[in-house]
Design a protein that fits this description.
Layout: E1 3-4, H1 5-23, H2 27-36, H3 39-44, H4 61-66, H5 75-90, E2 97-98, H6 116-132, H7 139-145, H8 153-163, H9 173-181, H10 192-201, H11 206-218, E3 244-250, H12 256-259, E4 268-269, E5 274-275, E6 281-284, E7 299-306, H13 313-330, E8 346-351, E9 355-361, E10 364-373, E11 376-383, E12 395-400, H14 408-411, E13 429-432, H15 442-457, E14 479-486, E15 495-499, E16 502-509, H16 516-529, H17 546-564, E17 570-571, E18 576-577, H18 580-588, H19 596-606, E19 623-626, H20 627-640, E20 657-663, H21 674-695, E21 707-713, H22 721-725, H23 727-738, E22 745-751, H24 755-758, E23 766-768, H25 783-788, H26 799-812, H27 824-833, H28 837-850, H29 857-877
Parallel strand pairs: 1-2, 7-22, 7-23, 12-13, 12-21, 21-22
Antiparallel strand pairs: 3-4, 3-8, 5-6, 6-11, 8-9, 9-10, 10-11, 14-19, 14-20, 15-16, 17-18
Helix pairs in contact: 1-5, 1-6, 9-11, 15-21, 16-18, 17-19, 21-23, 27-28
Length: about 900
């Protein structure tokens, strides 16, 4: 019979505590030495090899337990690893372990290489928790964890649960969602006080709560699994927690230029399983609720909006963006620079931990929360906005590459701020790509998306476990190396500006203006960011080494940040800062996208994680670097750095080094088609944001979103039909690779014209705009059937060829007056070019009927025999 995991883990924890008691502060080093000498352990724990490359060869208890609980590890591999540790430290083994209810988070950051001081902090906390249990916890303990990479309230409580499941509650996404739905908590406890309160007030077995939460979330049932928890609290048929954006209802008072062609007071529903007709009585039809896309670890739902141009598809998505803007602007929990939108009258419905309706009346916000009784949601009660935690909402990632969409000149200035993401993912929306008055700068977008792609490629990766396998860019090729070339064009000028008296005249300022004054600025940068000021080039006009170029780039970025982000402390005409020390002080505490490129250049100088791969010259030639090795060096640098906020994007190669991504088939990324690159860039931008959302630390005063809403507006742009056909499959594969352990569910809304994409979505999840046959069955439908349906096209061919065939049919009809421009010869040639066999055959019959007196009988027989031969051949091949 299988032994429960918590029993095995508690025995291991006691063994490690006893080991710590014997070896004291050297316990981590001694454990490393023992494991390094055990070949059987090393063979089944690939993660261990990376620690041999570090100066501090210590292993802490968080690393040990995390190694047993990788989210992608197979059960048999977990059992092997457990038994190796049990063999080494307890002289015993287990034939079978029951892992139900054991949290399996992303372990990449939890297993980061840490310096000796940080590891001692973790050993000390572990030692005291084992001795004193809950009573050891205090605010000071939680404060210490702020400086440990990978540790926040969630990950710490999971570790506590691993070592003592009887006395500690894990705050993994399954448990939190379950307790919120039971009304035991309102949001994720963000710190010591909140966590202590739930430990003392929850009158339920922590282990049983975790087990039930896992079963409900995964949709698995075990008939032999019984707990004291009431059956009503284990109901797995409830749709709550399975996040969906259900629909919107435009209301009376919505301005005409906003509602456009949509109807007032009509619910536009994205999932037909939910009837939103009656505000007070929302009916759920489970027989229409098709669950096709979820995985074991993630609930995923996909819906779509389709319709001809001008039917209101983009209007609906713009209403969603307006609603989010108004709610975030009105909410008091976050500081925003969002513009207030006047006279928004709308209802937005979504299903999260509960079913909510957010009603906007002249831009005032009313939030309603429903009760569920069987398959009906009723009794909507008002939740005051100041009591509504934005973490109960959802975070929206909107992707729209249409040239004419989302133009602030047409929609309004309010949308401009939604393109800027510098708030640590607090305002619940980000829009891609960036637009300036509707314009997409393709060159800027390519640089940005490549940078995000490089961040994804350089994320740490544990071989054999599959996490973050984002280096596979196409079905047949993976990124294996990257070469860098110095972009000398960036250093032609220090900065440029438009002359005030003549805006058509551009003034360029070269590095020759970089006097001793600029060296003083760089000296202060070195002081503030802990750089060696002896590396500053004494003649900034002559850049020779890569470090020289990095300092030149830092000057450029300081000027650019001041001018672009409202700091206003740089005078373009005098070329001086009004107060550069205060400005640099402000930037030193800014870890947003504003300072990413600046920090990349600073960290390029500060650490040798990149320079060790590159020759110290002008880099006139591309120098290939292994992505695997560079990623490992970046992980090592982050793990040993004193800056706990240092992240991958701040330490990747700086922007003045142009990357060329090389694939394992010998080609490089630039050799791919525009459609392939568009798909890679679009999906990697999405993954980049999802990874960042998943990484937002659960700490006090920060909003963490458990639900994510993704909107693709005409994503099929640039895609060949084959790529459209594979889009949903490709997207789901990527989502499965990154394994988002903090995000509970994802809703995907696709606005499309593509029948290839629609064939992967059931019709119950499609909102058809305009006149439509309500009985269209899209899921698995033949593409030609979808194309032929009058909803998508009046026919399955272009309008011009339709016109030509119509004229030809008129010409061949003896009852119709001959149209101009047709002849017997032109008729026959045209018919021979028609590819659709049924239409071609019918037109041939009409042609022969009209011109039979002019056609040689033998010629007609030959043509008919040819047609007969073709039809027989087609029949035999079917």
């Amino acid at each position: 019979m299988a032994v429960k995991w918590n029993i095995v883990y508690r025995e291991l924890a006691e063994a490690f505590a006893a080991f710590r008691n014997r070896h004291g502060r050297e316990a981590g080093a001694e454990i490393y030495r023992i494991l390094d000498g055990d070949e059987r352990f090393r063979m089944s724990n690939q993660w261990f090899y990376k620690y041999s490359n570090y100066d501090d060869q210590y292993i802490d208890p968080v690393i040990l337990f995390s190694s047993l609980n990788s989210s992608k590890a197979k059960l048999e591999n977990r059992l092997i690893r457990i038994n190796h540790l049990c063999r080494i430290f307890m002289k015993k083994a287990y034939s079978e372990v029951d892992f139900i209810g054991c949290p399996t988070p992303i372990t990449i950051d939890l297993m980061s290489v840490r310096n000796k001081s940080t590891q001692e902090t973790l050993w000390s906390i572990f030692e005291n928790v084992m001795k004193f249990g809950q009573s050891f916890l205090d605010q000071d303990t939680f404060d210490k964890l702020k400086y440990v990479r990978g540790m926040d309230t969630v990950s710490f409580t999971i570790f506590l649960f691993w070592i003592d499941a009887e006395h500690f509650l894990p705050l993994d996404k399954h448990t939190v969602g379950y307790l919120i739905q039971l009304g035991k908590m309102d949001k994720i406890p963000a710190g010591y006080k909140d966590y202590w309160a739930i430990l003392n007030n929850l009158e339920m077995s922590f282990l049983e709560v975790a087990e039930v939460a896992y079963e409900i979330s995964s949709g698995q049932t075990d008939p032999e699994f019984h707990t004291p928890i009431k059956d009503s609290e284990k109901d797995m048929s409830r749709p709550v927690g399975n996040f969906r954006l259900l629909g919107v209802r435009p209301m009376t008072g919505l301005r005409e230029e906003v509602i456009k062609v949509l109807e007032v007071d009509k619910p536009y529903t994205f999932y037909n399983a939910f009837d939103l007709t009656d505000f007070n009585n929302i009916i759920y039809s489970p027989e229409l609720d098709v669950q096709l896309y979820s995985t074991r670890e993630m609930k995923i739902n996909i819906s779509s909006i389709v319709g001809k141009n001008g039917r209101g598809k983009s209007t609906l998505t713009e209403l969603i963006y307006r609603a989010i803007n108004v709610l975030a602007e009105a909410h008091g929990n976050i500081y925003t620079e969002l513009e207030k939108i006047p006279e928004l009258n709308l209802e937005l419905y979504y299903l999260g931990d509960f079913l909510y309706c957010i009603r906007f009346i002249n831009s005032d916000v009313w939030i309603f929360k429903y009760e569920q009784v069987d398959n009906t949601f009723l009794n909507p009660s008002i939740v005051p906005i100041e009591q509504f935690d934005l973490g109960q909402l959802f975070y929206t990632i909107a992707i729209n590459y249409s040239l004419y969409g989302l133009n602030s000149a047409n929609i309004g200035r309010w949308i401009k701020s939604l393109f800027v993401k510098n708030d640590g993912y607090q305002v619940p929306i980000v829009m891609n790509p960036y637009r300036d008055r509707g314009n997409i700068d393709v060159n800027v977008e390519q640089i940005l998306t490549r940078q995000r792609l490089m961040v994804n490629l350089l994320l740490p990766f544990t071989e054999g476990e599959g996490q973050f396998d984002l280096r596979k860019l196409t079905d047949k090729a993976s990124a294996v190396s990257v070469s860098y070339k110095l972009n000398q064009a960036k250093f032609k000028n220090l900065y440029s500006y438009k002359k005030k008296t003549n805006l058509s005249e551009t003034i360029t300022v070269g590095f020759d203006r970089a006097s001793e004054y600029y060296l003083e600025i760089l000296d202060y940068v070195c002081e503030k960011f802990d750089l060696d000021n002896r590396l500053i080039p004494r003649d900034i006009t002559r850049l020779n080494t890569l470090v020289d170029y990095a300092f030149g780039y830092i000057l450029q970025k300081l000027i650019n940040i001041s001018r672009s982000y409202g700091y206003g402390c740089f005078d373009i005409e005098s070329g001086e800062f009004s107060d550069y020390t205060t400005f640099i002080d402000q930037l030193s505490g800014n870890y947003s996208h504003i300072t990413n490129k600046l920090r990349q250049a600073i960290n390029f100088i500060k650490y040798d994680h990149i320079r060790s791969f590159l020759p110290e010259n002008r880099l006139s030639d591309n120098v290939p670097v292994s992505i695997k090795e560079l990623s490992s060096e970046i992980e090592k640098t982050i793990g040993s750095a004193q800056d706990s906020q240092l992240d991958t994007i701040q330490i990747v190669p700086p922007a003045f080094l142009v990357p060329k991504i090389i694939l394992d088939n010998g080609s490089d990324l630039d050799d791919l088609s525009s459609g392939e690159k568009q798909r890679i860039y679009a999906i990697n931008s999405l993954i980049y944001h999802l990874y960042n959302l998943n990484s937002v630390s659960v700490v006090e005063d920060l909003i963490t979103y458990r639900y994510v809403n993704i909107i693709f507006d005409e994503i099929e742009l640039y895609f060949h039909p084959e790529m459209q056909q594979d889009f949903i499959n490709y997207l789901l594969l990527y989502l499965e690779r990154i394994n988002l352990d903090r995000i509970a569910a994802i809703n995907i809304l696709i606005v499309t014209h593509s029948p290839f994409i629609l064939s992967d979505i059931p019709s119950t999840n499609i909102l058809f705009l305009g006149k439509t046959d309500q009985h269209i069955r899209t899921f698995g439908s033949n593409i030609h059937d979808l194309l032929a349906n009058s909803f998508f096209m009046e026919a399955f061919m272009g309008n011009y060829v339709k016109k030509i065939i119509g004229e030809l049919a008129d010409y061949l009809n003896p009852k119709v007056k001959d149209p101009d421009g047709w002849s017997e010869a032109k008729s026959l040639i045209t018919i021979e070019q028609i590819g659709e066999p049924l239409i071609q055959r019918r037109l041939k019959e009409m042609h022969f009927a009209r011109f039979k007196q002019n056609i040689n009988r033998q010629e007609q027989i030959a043509k008919l025999e040819e047609e007969l031969f073709r039809l027989r051949r087609e029949t035999n091949t079917q």
